[in-house]
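Recall the central idea of this unit: under ordinary conditions, the amino acid sequence of a chain determines the structure it adopts. In this exercise we apply that idea directly, starting from the sequence alone.
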Amino acid sequence: MLVGGEFYSYTNGIVSAGILRLNPNGTPDFTFDPGWGTKVDQSGWNDVRCLALQPDNRLMVGGSFSQFNRISRGHIVRLTNDIGAPLQVPAAITIQAPSCVATWPGANCLFGVSAAGTPPISFQWLKSGAIVPGQTNGSCWFPSASFADSGGYTLVVSNSFGSVTSAPVWLTVLPYSARPGTLDTNFVTGSGPDRPVWSVAEQPDGRLLVGGNFTAFNGTAHGGIVRLEPDGRVDTNFTAAGVGGDREVYTVMPQTDGKIVVGGWFTHFNGEARTNIVRLEADGSIDSGFNADFDSIDPNGWVWPMIQLPGGKLLVVGYFGEVNGELGHNNLVRLNTNGTIDPTFDTGTGPDNNTSALTLQPDGKILVGGAYGYFNGVFRGGIARIHTNGALDMSFKPGTAIQDSYGGVDAIAVQPDGRILIGGAFSAFDGVPRPNLARLNADGTLDTTFVPAALPWLSENWVYGLELQSDGKVIIGACPPGGWGTGAAACVARLNPDGSLDTSYALGSCTRNGVWCSKRLSNGQLMVGGSFPDFNGAATPCLVRLHGDEAFPPTPFTLGLRWSSGVLELGLFGEFGRDYTIETSTSLPAFAPWTNFVSSGTNWIPVPAQAGQFFRARTGL
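Accordingly, the structure predicted from this sequence is:
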């Protein structure tokens, strides 16, 4: 039995300050020796107010004392289970960094652990039990990793009380061919499409819908549309295969109910009259419950991108003036779920030229990009924002925006913080040089903090592919003006959140005609379509899949809180050099981005000291 309180000597004459242990018959247990216990000096002591025995029989003691057996302990101490002396912890180690690290040859690689204990502490890294020369810090660093560096590493942490060895950290130096941005050779399409790919979409089951103006895929007839298995094989159960459209498919959009809307430039689909738009059942057959046509009189019209709104209605853009036989629906319209025109959506005269980009903001407002100058009579220079009813949002002010004669916005992506990335064919935005790529503030003004890397090909190639990662990085895909390139040129790159080049991502290159579309998949890989005959030197006509960060999985990371000089700080213990986003919430189901940064291994960030806050960290794929 353990007894704690405010006493100095026990009634049986055994000296004990604040704590003692009794035998089952109530007599003092002389083997339990807390020394001075809670006594401070000859005249005073403090009391023990609570006791708790751990599963390993070590004893937690709490009270109002400042010392225990002449060792400073502020109100709490842990005792061993035999002699009662304060337990000294020799350099306890907590693994905060990954249990495995993957990188490629020549990369700057750093990994480590966080160790706490009684100073002074010394460190020594071992590889397979052998000392690694020069690695005597909490982090192990290779400025230029090589295949020979692969292996299991442990860290021995020592102080005057002893030493502790960490669990292994496994380093794997992968072939350079597995670097993010390189070709995924597990995606095999055979001879692939015989003509360009204009659109790629991913279904929830991982299968891919591919649209273009091809007439065959891997040697079998397919009219501009095909569905592929995740490994690149043609899904022969998709009955649109072998029929499809009679001209070109520019966009394929899976609906939430499994049906598929197809847009482009065609007059027939699966042998039935369908002008520029059709909806398919999940198996590829035509959905007879959806009837719409675009520019059935003018043979030069087309449908480009579409998005499905909450509730099932469709927003459709492209180049058209007539929808379902009605004039006045210029280049932008909203359809009901059965294909009829939604009369409650009124854009006035709408955009005065073709529209080629469409994005829905979280607040329901709609961003529309294209080659137009005016939207409902107001100059917008290729980029406008409209309300849910179609009216122009006058609070979005892009200034002079894009004024290039043949310029326009062909891709839009909205960041979690509301800023807007645009790509296309332009040399400047609102008078500031920005060749083909820019970032706007939420109000439409140019974000001057985003300066795209001065890639030699970016000013010459139009940006059609624009994929935003959750860590703020941006993947761009480009195509030569008019698609008349001849020699090999870079066409895919990844930029950091500030626009600088992310050198960890392999530059993609292809000959002729470049990239016309891209789609970032749910696993972080990237689909790239276009009219190229090869990619990075491999014969991969018009369609490839590139490795994402899945080749280098995000390593384990943790969060913590501390008080520092009266300031509450949030700590993130992560992987050196990886991008992290911190999100906050006051009601667990809904988190919002707060800040993002590149980890230095351990980062401490001041946070508001208020109740009811939740934090979580994410790293992008």
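The chain has no helices and 55 strands.
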